Structures are given as C-alpha cells and as structure tokens.
Design the sequence.
C-alpha cells in the first residue's frame, strides 16, 4: 500500500463533489483555491495530485497555480471506473486502485 511505502494519502471532497453539494458548495473553475486551502490547513509543503474525469481538469488547473504540487496525473473522461483501474494498472495494483476509487465515490460508505 501507499502507507507501507511511506506515502500519506489525502482524499477530500471539493466544491461540487459529494457532501459539498448538500452544503451548497458547487463546482468552480478555479479549483486551485480549495486545493490551496487543504494544503494550507494540513501544512503540506510538497505533494503530487491525481485527478480522474473532472478531477483530471481540476488536478491540472490546481498544479498550474499551486507551486507546492510537484507531480500531476490526470485521467480523462471516466465512464467506467472498474475498467479504468483494472486495465491501466497491472494486477494486483488494479484492485488496490479500484478500492481507492470506491472510497472516492461520493456518498459511498464502507
């Protein structure tokens, strides 16, 4: 896992995602603003970012304006998360990424 390799993983719902919609926080083009707030709050000085579907746009946009983001991965339109995570990454990593994707689905509870 990422933790076993010394990585910390921060997952958050930004404006327009998950519970944020219920709080009347909708998508915004300048996603670097909420990303900056998360990095500031957690005192993160350097990180990478991964975005899937709309998150692909958000990750690239945030990386362009937030210099603490050093590495960016952006997946384009995602119409089948299972296929994405099991065909791009070899076994067993595909299953690990699928579990991460399930945890990212708004409203999904384990």
Sequence:
């Amino acid at each position: 896992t990422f933790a076993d390799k010394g990585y910390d993983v921060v997952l958050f719902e930004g404006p327009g995602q998950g519970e944020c919609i219920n709080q009347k926080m909708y998508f915004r083009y300048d996603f670097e603003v909420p990303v900056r707030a998360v990095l500031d709050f957690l005192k993160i000085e350097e990180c990478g970012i991964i975005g899937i579907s709309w998150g692909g746009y958000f990750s690239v946009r945030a990386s362009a304006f937030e210099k603490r983001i050093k590495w960016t991965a952006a997946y384009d339109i995602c119409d089948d998360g299972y296929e994405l995570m099991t065909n791009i990454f070899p076994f067993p990593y595909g299953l690990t990424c699928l579990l991460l994707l399930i945890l990212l689905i708004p409203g999904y509870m384990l």
